[in-house]
């Protein structure tokens, strides 16, 4: 896949281009920047993001908090326009961000389950938005409950579920919204370590079975490497792509892989890049 | 479960004990100090009067409740529609909200003469005033609730491709339900008060008219009997709305 080098990753000076060699990419970003506010208050959240994601890829994004990861997601979900001059191609077509509304499956950080809807009715929400009848949507959702570990909880209300289960309902809702690209924003951020590691392996299974393309935000380096085909490391504000690493660990991946030399090798590179960034932003903050 | 039942029993006992204590003290005070009836009649005397006047009072209550209910329904419907409309079309809100605020800053009762002039002495004028009073109470709460919706949840629906109308039906209205129910609850008591006051100002029927007429005839016992019936009816309706609230907003 990569030209030369026994290294499991590659380091490219910024701006970074990351185009997979197989199949035309589902989404292709070039020169995507975003500034908020005006004049003195102007804050640059994203700068010259260049990223392409191929069909079926699992790409993870790591970076310090405030690196514009969520802004990037909001643009991809169609919720925020990028600054003029950005190029967003989705399915080969150039698009304005707002044209992506309804075309990308987006799971925000919080589960955002609606408390007045039962688990089933929360899961089928996007289908109902599409105009599907409730009966048909329920039929579509029914076989997914066991897979998402929610069998027997269809009729429960969100407040009756544990954090891990709520997150699985939100994931199921996202997966029922079948789109070419799925965005997951720190879906496991609020879970305890054990539940988290179980959910990661489970997510990989679901991803492989449903053959989705996933862009996954996290600030957990282990999680990013464990899940991803590629790890994208972002810089502190303004958010830029610092590094893109291919993760050529075999799949399916089991829990022990995190102690393998290859894993450690990649982790060292990611941590070094993040360390450099953290130092930079610390110096900025202290006026050094 | 038995713990819950016991707690509920205790709740009810306390809820009943308070008013009962007040009634007993009241009765004792009136009898002990031989307070004249026109100053303050004893609860037992009021109860006896309610029984004697029952057909008259129930007839009046029917009229008042009818006016209150009609005004309540119209006012609540208009208020909910307006609140939704304002959220869907912010331009309308910018134009009309100041007008509503100006109207609402005057007590509804101040409009009574106008209402009587426009709608006559019959039930229409009372319904109009109740509509106004209920409308404001419901509108303020519904409008606040519809706008206070979690922005991330709205964004999630947008990302599913939901337009403003779908967001309204699937998210905003249910999310605003606790707030809307609050408005509806406040409006219950308001609707009864306004209907009775409007009847006292000018009417031929209803509990308010009974109160007014009895005052003219210096029949204070009947005044108190009418007040007792009105208050009991208000509490009953309030209880129904409370029950509805708990059923509808079960997730709170």
TrEMBL record, chain B:
Domain spans labelled ABC transmembrane type-1: 57-245
Keywords, comma-separated and alphabetical: Cell membrane, Membrane, Transmembrane, Transmembrane helix, Transport
Signal peptide: none
Gene3D superfamilies attached to this UniProt entry: MetI-like
InterPro entries given in the database record: MetI-like, MetI-like_sf
Membrane-crossing residue ranges in chain numbering: 6-26, 69-88, 95-121, 127-146, 187-204, 224-244
Membrane topology according to the record: Multi-pass membrane protein
Domain of life: Bacteria
Cell location: Cell membrane
SUPFAM superfamilies reported in the protein's UniProt record: MetI-like
Keyword Transport among UniProt keywords: yes
Similarity comment: Belongs to the binding-protein-dependent transport system permease family.
PANTHER family from the UniProt entry: ABC TRANSPORTER PERMEASE PROTEIN HI_0355-RELATED, ALKANE SULFONATE ABC TRANSPORTER-RELATED, MEMBRANE SUBUNIT
Protein name in UniProt: ABC transporter permease subunit
Organism: Azospirillum oleiclasticum
Taxonomic lineage: Bacteria, Pseudomonadati, Pseudomonadota, Alphaproteobacteria, Rhodospirillales
